[in-house]
Amino acid sequence: MTDEPLPQKLIIITAPSGSGKTTIVKALLEKISQLTFSISATTRPPRKNEVDGKDYHFLSVKEFEQKIEEDAFAEYEMVYANKFYGTLKAKLNEIWHNGKIPLVDIDVQGAQKIKQQYQENALSIFIQAPSLEELAKRLKNRGTDSVEMIAERVAKAKHELALKNNFDQTVVNDELHEAITFCQTTIENFISKN
């Protein structure tokens, strides 16, 4: 077995912050046994209840920049000032070596980059809230961001929504159960294709 397996199937889930992506991803991981969550690296501090190595690999900016120099990322982005996120190649390879399919839950720019890299081996799904007003309400109700950060996330979401046609599928997360079912069916169809 080589260290660099041929790229195998990959599932990309992306969305503007507050669209319900994390909830949908957790449901998909429970419903589709072939999937394994690919833990991203980030320089942002952990939120309450987040665990290093389970939710994210939390790195300092210096550690993250060192990994960029080492070409350790399949994709990475500076999503907000000094807040980097990235998908580690080693994590994808580890999942493939274990006979599973990585599911990456990443921001829109990163999702475009990784889709370009893996092309037909990757299925990309864009999840959107029913409206920007609903998105702002969800972010406020989440209680993790300041008013300024919510405004920044909503402004970013406007830009990201303009990119949704760059992905294989778009799902409006208006009714959570329906959104999960649509994603599950789409992924299972993709996995079953040779």
Describe the model.
The chain has 194 residues and is an alpha/beta fold. It has one domain: P-loop containing nucleotide triphosphate hydrolases (Rossmann fold, 3-Layer(aba) Sandwich). Helices cover 43% and strands 22% of the residues. It has a 5-stranded parallel β-sheet with strand order 2-7-1-8-9, with helices on both faces. A 4-stranded mixed β-sheet has the order 4-3-6-5. β5 and β6 form a beta hairpin. The relative contact order is 0.21.
Distance between the termini: 22 Å
Class derived from helix and strand content:
alpha/beta
Strand order of the largest sheet: 2-7-1-8-9
| CATH fold field value | Rossmann fold
Structural domains: how many? 1
Major sheet attributes? 5 strands, parallel
Mean of all residue-level pLDDT scores: 91
How many strand elements?
Answer: 9
Helix content: 40-55%
User: What's the level 1 CATH class?
Assistant: Alpha Beta
**Total count of helical runs of at least 4 residues:** 7
Name the features:
four-stranded mixed beta sheet, globular, alpha/beta, 194 residues, Rossmann fold, five-stranded parallel beta sheet
What order do the helices and strands come in, and which of them pair?
Layout: E1 10-14, H1 21-31, E2 35-37, E3 41-42, E4 57-58, H2 61-69, E5 73-80, E6 83-88, H3 89-97, E7 101-106, H4 108-118, E8 122-128, H5 132-142, H6 147-161, E9 169-172, H7 176-192
Parallel strand pairs: 1-7, 1-8, 2-7, 3-4, 8-9
Antiparallel strand pairs: 3-6, 5-6
Helix pairs in contact: 1-7, 5-6
